[in-house]
Automatic annotation (TrEMBL):
Spans annotated as Disordered: 1-26
InterPro entries membership: MFS, MFS_dom, MFS_trans_sf, Proton-linked_MCT
Entry-linked SUPFAM superfamilies: MFS general substrate transporter
Keywords of the record: Membrane, Transmembrane, Transmembrane helix
Domain Major facilitator superfamily (MFS) profile, chain residue ranges per copy: 37-437
Designated name of the protein: MFS transporter
Gene3D superfamilies per the UniProt record, alphabetical: MFS general substrate transporter like domains (1.20.1250.20)
Membrane-spanning intervals of the chain: 35-60, 72-92, 104-124, 130-149, 161-182, 194-213, 256-274, 286-313, 325-344, 350-370, 382-402, 414-432
Length: 445
């Protein structure tokens, strides 16, 4: 290696080449590995960004009442947000390789805050689409699960499934923290203070990202947790080209389409349907908006438990079978939901909330594990594209659910259709084949 640099200390003489995994001079072995601190900062960052995701379902009724916009129109703005959230994710993963995690995430949080704040002064539906749909969608896409996948891939070799589950649960934790507050603000003080709260929450996380997050273990002369030393790769140029190239390569394989298709159904049955339309659907049956938001917050509580448990399961059991079980159980629960909606919260509804919450994003750790198994070093970008399909599915149902409510006067047809789609997703997960390779299959695949 010639004239290299390591940890800010220049090597000005010829040094013998190191084989991969050989520790460099000055390698540190801390008692508590720095990877856990990076994971903690990532967790807090995703919690802060999750505040904006809690708001759309709470805004449908207030915006409909104030501006007389149809639910389909408001649902369209939410669908643009969800679609851009997904379509930005693979490019964000590549941008993180090019510019570093800190810069991309700090910029994304700033864009989220800007878009949310601008909605306070909107007077037309196109402004809702621009501010909430485009700006917040682009910012949130850069803060998507591809961020968690990138951090996990760089900083962890052991416990990847568990860490993936913890970081995925961060979004649910943000929902838990902010939903009751936002619903109270929206109902008692109007939707504008709720939107300002989202903006301030996103901005508050930026200093933590800039000061505490690090892009790669080699930046602080460490090995990844549970692995051998890996030199920090040179910044990857042509981020957009790489994202498209990886997509074209992955699109030639069957597992990509099965993962993308099943994850599209996952998005349709969670973010698109329940997160966006559960509160207004419950309100249609006489339930107060604050009570419906409280139920969504409880989903967030059990989502944390279910997702972390799913990460633990993914380290030990077949990811394919786990996905099939998760989708099948979710489909059954959605088929029963129309019979449970009522003016008051009763025990069967609580059972649904707990059951559904445990399954909300439990699909993420095994999906990331399958991407890693199938696509190796490109897995974070491939997962970004799979996540794009998740959000496209969510966008279709966010818009379609609003239209269905306008046309039929009820959300029931959407609940039933989503339940049937979940059964199809379970079958798709089961037929994903292992890659043809002589290399050992990772644990939990």
């Amino acid at each position: 290696m010639r004239n290299g640099k390591l940890g800010g200390m220049a090597q000005t003489t010829e040094t013998p080449a190191r084989t991969p995994g050989t520790p460099p001079p000055g390698l540190r072995t801390p008692r508590v590995h720095r990877a856990w601190f990076v994971a903690a900062v990532t967790f807090v960052t995703i919690i802060g960004a999750a505040a904006f995701a809690s708001l759309p379902g709470l805004l449908i009724e207030p915006l409909h009442q104030e501006f007389r916009w149809s639910r389909g129109t408001i649902g369209f703005a939410v669908s643009v947000n969800l679609a851009l959230y997904g379509l930005t994710a693979p490019f964000a993963a590549a941008l993180m390789d090019r510019f570093g995690i800190r810069r991309v995430v700090a910029a994304a949080l700033t864009v989220i805050a800007l878009g949310s704040l601008l909605t306070v002064w909107m007077t037309a539906a196109w402004q809702l689409v621009l501010y909430w749909g485009v700006l917040v969608g682009l910012g949130s896409g850069s803060m998507a699960l591809a961020f968690a996948a990138t951090v996990t891939n760089r900083w962890f070799v052991a416990r990847r499934g568990l860490v993936t589950g913890i970081l995925t649960a961060a979004g649910a934790s943000g929902q838990l923290v902010f939903l009751p507050l936002l619903s109270w603000l929206a109902e008692d003080h109007g939707w504008r203070p709720a939107s300002v709260t989202v903006a301030l929450s996103a901005l508050a996380v930026v200093p933590f990202v800039w000061l505490l997050l690090r892009d790669h273990p080699a930046d602080v002369r460490l090995t990844p947790y549970g692995g051998e030393y890996v030199p920090k790769p040179a910044p990857a140029r042509g981020a957009a080209r790489r994202a498209v190239t990886v997509l074209l390569k992955a699109a030639r394989t069957g597992p990509f389409w099965l993962l993308a298709g099943s994850f599209a159904i996952c998005g349709a049955s969670t973010n698109g349907l329940v997160r966006t339309h559960f509160a207004p659907a419950a309100h249609d049956h006489g339930m107060p908006l604050t009570a419906a938001a409280g139920l969504l917050a409880v989903i967030g509580v059990f989502d944390v438990v279910g997702t972390i448990a799913s990460g633990w399961f993914t380290d030990r059991f077949s990811a394919r079978r786990l996905l099939a079980v998760y989708y099948a159980l979710r489909g059954v629960s959605l088929l029963f939901l129309p019979m449970l909606l009522a003016p008051a919260v009763h025990p069967p509804m609580i059972f649904f909330i707990v059951f559904y919450g445990l399954d909300w994003v439990a699909t993420v750790p095994p999906t990331i594990a399958l991407c890693r198994e199938q696509y190796g070093d490109d897995s974070a970008i491939v997962f970004g594209w799979v996540l794009a399909s998740h959000q496209v599915g969510a966008a279709v149902v966010a818009f379609g659910g609003g239209v269905a409510r306008d046309v039929f006067g009820t959300y029931d047809p959407v609940w039933y259709a989503s339940g049937a789609l979940c059964a199809a997703a379970a079958l798709m997960a089961l037929v994903i084949r292992r890659p043809r390779t002589d290399a050992p299959v990772p644990a939990g695949a």
